[in-house]
Design goal:
Elements: H1 2-66, H2 73-95
Helix pairs in contact: 1-2
Length: 96
C-alpha cells in the first residue's frame, strides 16, 4: 500500500510541476505575443516614416533640378510629364 501511495504522490508532484511550467509558459507566450504586436506596429510606423522621407527626398531632387542644377534634370522632366499625365487623366474623369 505504501508503494502505491508513493507512486500517487510522485505523480501528483510531477503534475504540479507540469502545471506550474504550463502556467509560466502560457504567461510568457502572452507576453511575447504582445511584444510581437508592438513591434509590428512599430514596423508599420517606420515604413510610413520611410515613405514620407522618400517623398520628401524626391521633391527635393525635383526642386534642385528646377532651381537650375544640371543633375537629375532628365528624371525631373520625366516626373513632371508623369504628373501632367495624371492631372490630364483626372480632368478627363471629372469631365465624364
Amino acid at each position: 500500500m505504501s508503494s502505491i501511495t508513493q507512486v500517487v504522490n510522485l505523480v501528483e508532484d510531477k503534475l504540479k510541476i507540469l502545471l506550474e511550467n504550463y502556467t509560466f509558459l502560457k504567461e510568457e507566450n502572452e507576453l511575447l505575443y504582445k511584444k510581437i504586436a508592438g513591434l509590428e506596429t512599430q514596423i508599420v510606423k517606420e515604413k510610413q516614416n520611410f515613405n514620407e522621407i522618400e517623398k520628401q527626398y524626391q521633391l527635393l531632387k525635383i526642386a534642385k533640378t528646377i532651381e537650375g542644377s544640371k543633375e537629375d534634370s532628365r528624371e525631373t522632366k520625366l516626373k513632371i510629364n508623369a504628373l501632367i499625365r495624371e492631372i490630364d487623366a483626372c480632368i478627363v474623369q471629372l469631365s465624364e
